[in-house]
Amino acid sequence: MTPALTLTGPVPFTVTASRDYDPEVGTLPGMSLGHHEIDGDGGEAARRLFAAGARHVTLPRPVDVTDTADAAWSVRALSFVGDLSSLAVSVDWQINTGPDPEAWRHYSHLHPPTAVLGAADPEATALEWRNAYYICKCVFRYGPGFMQVRDRRYGELRRFTIDEPEYHEAIRTLTDGARADAIPRPILDDLMEETLVLRLGDHLWWAPYRVRRWSEAPLVI
Question: Is the dihedral of CA 55, 87, 168, 177 positive or negative?
Answer without folding.
Answer: negative
